[in-house]
Each structure stands twice: as structure tokens, then as C-alpha cells.
User: Fold this.
Amino acid sequence: MDMKMLSTAVSDFGFPIIMAVGMGYFVYYVWWFINNKINVALGTMHKALIRVIDQTRMMDQDLIRLQQKVNVVLEYREKEAIIEDQKEKQALEILEEKSK
Assistant:
């Protein structure tokens, strides 16, 4: 559209009418862009977000199981240390009795 045609349209219909048509086209273009470009990208990102959330949940469950296993091992080591201390005390008592 050249300037002469635009000036003729403004003189025939008036500036407000031409601007209303221009705004109508702008609103249509924004609506078209949102529906054809942004909604498609949002759908793809939504699927990716769901996948990341599922992976995070699985990792959290794995960490909980691993922490439980570590707790069991630590508890086992504490029991072994207590048993070892008891054996050492008994051995010392036996040695003390023999030395008397």
C-alpha cells in the first residue's frame, strides 16, 4: 500500500475508521500468532515439564531408599562397635583376673 492510496482512504473514510480497521487487523494478527505459535510451544513445554516432574519424583524416591539403606548400615556399625567394646571389656576383665 503506498502513501497516495492511504491518503485517499483517509480522506474518503476518515482517520478513525482507517485506524479501527488497522487495530482490527492487529488484534487478528495477535490472536493468530498466539493460537498458531505460542499455544503449540506451550503444549510442548507442558509435556517437557511433566516429564521433568516425574523424573524429580523418581529421584526423590531413590534418595529416600538410599537414605534408608545408609541408616541401616550406620545402625549396624554402631551395634558392631558396641559388641566389640563389650568383647574388649570382657577380655580386659579376664586378663585382670588372671594377673591376680
Observations:
- The chain has one domain: 3-99.
- Residues 15-99 form the longest helix (85 residues).
- The mean pLDDT is 92.
- Residues 43 and 64 are 32 Å apart (CA to CA).
